[in-house]
Design goal:
Length: 373
């Protein structure tokens, strides 16, 4: 297994931000991940970089001036006042105006922009930003725990150098913000795997394929509850293989949302850490410049497990990883087993019972077959 130059973006302040009491999104999971990555002695095997905070100007490459300006001045105290005067930039309890919101967004977006620049300059083969992956944010609106769309900003940066960028999203939710941003271009292909049916944000059917020049360049893989490693792989591998063949991307951005893991607080899939990381391993071996981003993930100890293992996969050292967790500051959080693996449970796989998975795979492959090569 050949070596890759890996750049890892981390700001030690990120874990201190909080969305508020009871909110499922917990930035602390990024620190938990970082501490576990350190405990496994991965730090001296990659370039550790503290991202430059993204400026408001950098954010307006995608977002409107008015929206970025709003995020830059809103505080928990002024949120209501600012929201009532004609603007509706924040939506209810999913997207609160928490303390330090703008700094948190600058760290998340700064990491993904840094990762994109590092890849485009040729200084790294794989770049990682676990604080990124906030795929729901829209041009002028926050949505689903996301305010600034670091992914769109990162892809726009890559497009300055590369003709074609592939975006893959394995978060349990549909990657709607990224899909919408590139819906009418053939330079970015977006492919989201997600739960569909009475689930946020409600978009992402296989009829949504892109528009105009972008027709056929948005790929959606809607799934049902309880998908297993085996089922997921049986759709991920053929669809991504076909995309690589027909689209020939010059760079790949993989959103590694960890709410697709078994036992997630908001998710409904049954994927293990190994099944999730298989996506990283599969893309690494394609030898295409690769960016790994975070995203969802609400059972924080499992998020740390998966993203730690995926960092090891990026380095190609996963076979040397001890399945028993090393001592670390948060060791007791990982009890009672103190093992790295996230195991499957006994829920039904609703994707195989009615043959829907096979239909979804065939439909996606037909869409890709119809693209000009
Ligand atoms: C919460 O307990 O489905 C927010 C959100 C805050 C604390 C106290 C307030 C309690 C679950 C979710 C009331 C909360 C009501 N608190 C939230 C339609 C909804 C309207 C808002 O992984 N209510 C909206 C968003 C999804 C909806 C998922 C996934 C992000 C990503 C990438 C975003 N929104 C119903 C919910 C709680 C909360 C408890 C919550 N919100 C669960 N699912 C949603 O794709 C990062
Ligand atoms: Ca997804
Ligand atoms: Zn999600």
């Amino acid at each position: 297994m050949s070596k890759r130059r890996v750049a890892y973006y981390y700001d030690s302040d990120v874990g201190a931000y909080t969305y508020g009491l009871g909110h499922p999104m917990k930035p602390h999971r990024i620190k938990l991940t970082h501490d576990l990555v350190s405990a496994y002695d991965m730090m001296d095997k990659m370039h550790i970089l503290r991202p430059k905070r993204a400026t408001p100007e950098a954010m307006t490459a995608f977002h409107t001036d008015e929206y970025v300006h709003f995020l830059n001045r809103v505080t928990p105290e002024t949120a209501e006042e600012l929201t009532y005067h004609g603007t509706r930039f924040l939506i209810g309890e999913d997207n609160p105006a928490f303390e330090g919101l703008f700094e948190f967004c600058s760290i998340s977006a700064g990491g993904t922009l840094g990762a994109a620049q590092r890849i485009a300059s040729g200084a790294a083969d794989i770049a990682i930003n676990w604080a990124g992956g906030l795929h729901h944010a829209k041009k002028r609106e926050a949505s689903g725990f996301c305010y600034i769309n670091d992914i769109v900003l990162g892809i726009l940066e890559l497009l300055r150098t590369y003709p074609r960028v592939l975006y893959i999203d394995i978060d349990c939710h549909h990657g709607d913000g990224v899909e919408e941003a590139f819906y009418t271009t053939d330079r970015v292909m977006t492919c989201s795997f997600h739960k569909f049916g009475e689930y946020f944000p409600g978009t992402g059917t296989q009829d949504d394929k892109g528009r105009g020049k972008g027709k056929g360049y948005a790929v959606n893989v809607p799934l049902k509850d309880g998908i297993t490693d085996e089922s997921f792989k049986s759709v991920f591998e053929p669809v991504i293989t076909k995309i690589l063949e027909v689209f020939r991307p010059s760079a790949v951005v993989l959103q590694c949302g960890a709410d697709s893991l078994s036992g997630d607080k908001l998710g409904c899939f049954n994927i293990t850490m190994h099944g999730h990381a298989h996506c990283v391993q599969f893309l690494r071996k394609q030898n295409i410049p690769l960016i790994l981003l975070g995203g969802g993930g609400y059972t924080v100890k499992n998020v740390a497990r998966a993203w730690t293992y995926e960092t090891a996969c990026a380095l190609g050292i996963e076979d040397d990883i001890d399945p028993n967790l090393p001592w670390n500051e948060y060791f007791e959080w990982f009890g009672p087993r103190y093992r790295l693996e996230v195991m499957a449970n006994n829920m039904d796989d609703c994707n195989v019972k009615d043959g829907s998975l096979e239909k979804v795979r065939v439909t996606a492959l037909e869409q890709l077959q119809g693209l000009p090569c």
